[in-house]
Each structure stands twice: as C-alpha cells, then as structure tokens.
Amino acid sequence: MHWRDTLPEWYVKKYGYQPCVNIGTAGHVDHGKTSLIQAFTGVWTSVHSQELKRGITIRVGYSDAAFYKCKNCEPPLGYSTTPKCPNCKKESELSRVVSFVDSPGHESLMANMLSGSALMDGAILVIAANEQVPKPQTREHLLALEILGIKQIVVVQNKVDLISYKEALSNYKDITKFVKGTKALKSPIIPVSAQSGLNIDALIGAIEDTIETPKREEDKDAVMHVLRSFDVNKPGAKIKTIKGGVIGGSLTQGVFNIGDEIEIKPGILNEKKKSYEPIQTEIASLGTGAGTVEIVKPGGLVAIGTKLDPSLTRSDSFIGSVIGKPDTLPPNSLTANVEVNLFDSAVGTTEETKVNPILVGDSLRVNIGTAPILSKVTKVKSKNIEIEFKRPVCIFEGSTIAISRRIAERWRLIGAGVVG
C-alpha cells in the first residue's frame, strides 16, 4: 500500500498530498547516507550513471517516506515506515510524511551538498562507527549545516554491526566529544546498521522528537528554489507526445496550482544581448512522491511540469534558479553587499589552514540558496565586502550564504555571510 492511501483527513487538509518537511543527510563519503535513506524509503537515491559506476552520491538525490506510530507499543518499538506495526502486527497511525534530501559526501562535491542544504528543515548527520571521528567532510558538513541555520540535527552512528560492543562505545564517546560546542551538542546519537535495518525504529522516533515541521507561510508570494531539472522524454519520442521540461525543488512559501503563470530567474542567456533574461511559462503538471496533484504547498520536494522546450531543462541546467509568480521575485543581480563572518581555519582540509582576511580581487565561491556562484571581491570595508558574480543571480536581502575559497586545488569552506 502506498502512503498516499493512508493519509488521514487532518493531514490532507493541512499539507495536501505531499511531504510536510525536508530532512537532509550529511556526512563523510561512504559512511552510509544513501543506504540509510534506502532503509527508510526502499529507494536507492543514487541513480545517475556515474554514481552507479563510482559507488558515491554525486548529484543531490531525494525520496519520500511516511512515518507511522503504533499506539499499542512502547516507543521506539512502535515507529515504522509501514501502516501495520512490525512489532505487534496491529494498524499504526500516520505521524507524518517526509522528503529526504541525500547530499554527496565527497570533498570535491561540496557545492552540491550546500545546494541540497538550502532546502533542509532538519538533518541527519551520519558518522560511520568503524572509522576515526571526525573525518574531514564530517566536520565540514556539520559546520555547513550550522551556518545555513539548520539547528534540528539527529546524529546517526552507522555500521555498528561491523564492530564490537566495546568499539561502539569508544566510537560513541568520540562522537560526543566531536559535537561538543556545536549545534549538535544536545542532538540524540542513535546507533544503527542501515544495511541490515537495525534500530531504524529508534532512529524514526528520534527524528520525530527532534526535527519539527516548521510553520509555513502559504499566504505569501510563492518562492521555489530549484534543485534539479530534467528532460523526461525518451529518445525517438514522437513530437505530439513530447512533454515540456520538468523542474524539481521545494517551495519555501506560497502555493502553486496547475495553470499558474510562473517566472524563472535568472533565466537563460540571450546570446545576442549577452545577458540573462527571466523566463515565463505555465505550470502544466505538478508531482510529489504521492503522484500528480492539483496544488503544491511549502514543504517536501515537488516537480513542476512546464511548457518549456525540454532541451532547456536537461542535465540539471536550472539548478540554483528561483521560481515565483511573474513580477514578484527580486531583480537579477550581478553584485551584492555581504556582511562576512570568517572561520579561524578552513574546513575540510586534513591539516589546519588559517583563514586569511578577504582582500579585493579575491576569487570566492558563494552558495546562495541552491545556487553555487563564482564571484570576485571588488570592495572590502571591515567585515563588509562587495562581490561581483560571474553570472546573474536572483537573491533575497537577508539571505545567509556560504563562502568558500580555493585552497590546495579544492574549494574549502571559510565562512558565512548575510546579504545586505
């Protein structure tokens, strides 16, 4: 039975036929983030050809799951992802439906991780029990979550089936030392084996107790940040069956209905004018993990079927774009003023590297929403800098951005900033 068929009236009235919260994964490469999501959803989110060949997550993946709670069983035994309690075999009640955002853990893919983090309401920090704590990207991902304002975190001690009880306790102590002084200090640490499904009920219970569904503002102008875009047509499809380009992401506020006119910024490059121009189109279809719907609300990951030429949306070409109703989004910008807060040392390096002050002429990579943008520093005044983007971006005043600098051939996280 699909979770859509178990949605009670109260849930549909409040959230519609879609997930109500986005929960991301974070952590070092090969610590089992994708396996954990598969334990929840039954879906392996790494489906890109290179991901399958290399065995790592490259692009941000996503999948949905429903959490159920049995009234007859003591927590956490009563938590599961099935309508029938695995413990007592009686019917369970729906707790909520969640979207999982699976971010890559490899150091060279930090921009993709930051793009996925922009849509997270809470996160699961996955740490392998059979490896040293912390690994470089474990530290980098936790700091990234913190600077992007993600405070609801559950720590997962994965792969406990590969070590002894004594080793698991030692690893657990290392994790508690690592999170000391961070936003994850009071986060629950749940030992699991994603591969064998061990302790998943306890993890669901911890998620339900720790990561709250945020309040959404449906009455405001719709804003959707784009995380993926596709051409869903198969090679050789007949012209009359061609479907328009599909754009995936999540609404942070407002609602979209089928038939709505929408605007996409920054848009596409006009080769003649050598400038980006916003695109307007119509919503032809709306999809969630429950299937096609008539309306989508904030929360959960959704797909918008448009009337755009599908060649425009192929290969995630719209990542970082912002979608809203016409004339409601901020204008495209080539510059921004940012109040910067730098770290003492760069994050993700094997050896401690001091972060030097930002200077005029420095090249930086900034993550704005789901958009990783290369930029150049044009002015510096104390903690305030002015940056010039390599291409236009749709940016909201007050947005928090992540700042990276190229260190030893890699972009390393060096600080955060607020757009003024």
Order of the strands making up the biggest sheet: 3-2-4-1-5-6-7
CATH superfamily label of the largest domain: P-loop containing nucleotide triphosphate hydrolases
Q: How many domain regions?
A: 3
Provide the structure class.
alpha+beta
Distance between the termini: 49 Å
Radius of gyration: 22 Å
Q: Which topology of the largest domain does CATH recognise?
A: Rossmann fold
CATH architecture type of the largest domain: 3-Layer(aba) Sandwich
Characterize the overall form. globular
Give me the strand/helix succession: HEHHEEEHEHEHEHEEEEEEEEHEEEEEEE
Strands, total number:
22
- Helical fraction: 10-25%
Q: Count of helices?
A: 8
CATH class of the largest domain: Alpha Beta
The pLDDT mean sits at 87
Beta-strand content bin = 35-45%
